[in-house]
Amino acid sequence: xxxxxxxxxxxxxxxxxxGATSVTGTNTFSVGSGATSLGGTLGVSGAITASxxxxxxxxxxxxxxFGAVATASILSASNQNLGIQAQGTGNLNMQGSSTSESLxxxxxxxxxxxxxxxxxxxxxxxxxxxxDTNNDVVHIGSSTANTNGIVLALNNxxxxxxxxxxxxxxxxxxxxSMFMCGVSGYWxxxxxxxxxxxxxxxxxxxxxxxxxxxxxxxxxxxxxxxxSLIGSPSTLTYSYNQxxxxxxxxxxxxxxxxxxxxxxSGNDAGATMSLGIGSMLLGTSNVIMRTAVNVTxxxxxxxxxxxxxxxxxxxPTTGVYWTESENGxxxxxxxxxGGSATCANSSVTATAGSWAILKIDMVSTSEIDFYINxxxxxxxxxAYNTTNxxxxxxxxxxxxxxxxxxxxxxxxxxxxxxxxxxx
Length: 423
Known about the structure:
Elements: E1 6-9, E2 15-17, E3 20-24, E4 27-30, E5 36-38, E6 41-45, E7 52-54, E8 57-59, E9 64-65, E10 92-95, E11 99-104, E12 107-112, E13 118-121, E14 127-132, E15 137-140, E16 156-157, E17 170-173, E18 178-183, E19 186-189, E20 198-203, E21 211-212, E22 226-230, E23 235-240, E24 258-263, E25 270-274, E26 287-296, E27 300-307, E28 319-325, E29 329-335, E30 341-349, E31 356-364, E32 367-372, E33 375-380, E34 391-398, E35 406-418
Parallel strand pairs: 1-4, 2-5, 3-6, 16-17
Antiparallel strand pairs: 7-8, 8-9, 10-11, 11-12, 13-14, 14-15, 17-18, 18-19, 20-35, 21-23, 22-25, 23-24, 24-35, 25-34, 26-31, 26-35, 27-28, 27-34, 28-29, 29-30, 31-32, 32-33
C-alpha cells in the first residue's frame, strides 16, 4: 500500500505489482525500457495521467489514437448500450480525411463531398435515401433505373386548420384528398392554380373562327384570339389541322394545329393574332408563356411573345418575345424601361418544317429566362418595361413581297402566372 507522495522508477528493468495494490495521493511510476506489470487488483484514488503507446495505439490525456489497424472499433459488450457523450455545451466531433461530422446539443452537422455523402439502406442493402453533396441532389431510392418500389410519402394531414404555409413546402390533405403546395405565401392544390392568386390560360387550337378575317374579328381558337391585319395582305387566312400545302405531318402528339397563312404578294403585309390589345402588364409576379411554332416561309418575319405589336411592323415598344426573319436565327428580345428593344441570337435556326418549342419565364423584374428547344438563355441584371400593357401575340408579315404562300403553324399556347396579392 502506497499513500501520500512517492516515486517508483527503474532504469531498464520491470515493475511488477501483484496482489491487492492500493495507490493514493500523487505517485509517479517511471519505467525506462522495461515494463510495468499489474497482477491482482489495483485500486487508484485520485487522478491518473497516462501517456504511452501500445501496439502502435497511443493513449494520452487528450486522445486515443489507433495506429496500424485498417478498421478501429469501440465495442460494447453483447446486448449492452454504448454511450459517448460530450458534456455541457461541448460538441461530439467525428473527422475523416474528407469528411466531418459534428453532433451538439443544438443539432447535428455532417459535411462530406461525395455522390453518396449520406445513404440510408434497408437490410437488403437497397438505398432508401441518398444525399449527393457533389451535385446538390437528394435521391429517394436510387438515381438509376431499378425494380425497387421505394415510395416518398408526405404527411397525411387531417387537421381542421391548415398548417403554417412554407414556400416550396408540400403535404397531403386528408380532408380534401389532394396534395397541397406552398406558393407565394399560400397553400394551393398542387398541379392546379387557385384563381385567387394565379391564372392558367391554355389553347390547343382544335377549332375556332377561320377563313379570311377582318381586323377586330375574334373567335380564333378556344380562347377567342383577335385578328389585326398588317397592311393589305393578298390573302390572310386562319385554318386548323391542315394536311396539304406546307402543313407539317399529322402527329398523335399534336392534336390541334393552327395555320396562319400569308399568301400572294405584298411587302410588310400580314397579321397579328393576340388575346386582346394591351390586356396585361409585366410586373413582379412570375409569368410564364409556353408555345410551339413551325415557320414555313423564307420571306416572313415572325414575333411570338408578350408584346404590344398589332397592325405595325415596327419593333414593339414594350414586351418580351422571340423573333426570326426569313428562316433565320431565332432571337430573344426584351424592351427596356426606356422603350428600346434589346435582342440576342440563340443557337437555333427557324428551319421550315421543324418545330421550335419556345418558353419565356419572367423570373423577376431584373431577370428573364428564354428557352428554345430546351436551351436556356438567362438575361439578368436588366430593367424591362412594366408600365405599358402587353398581350400574348403571334405576329407574321412578308418582308420581300414575293408572290408565294408562307405559313406560321402554332401547336399550342399556355400562359401561367402567380399574382403578387390575392384577388
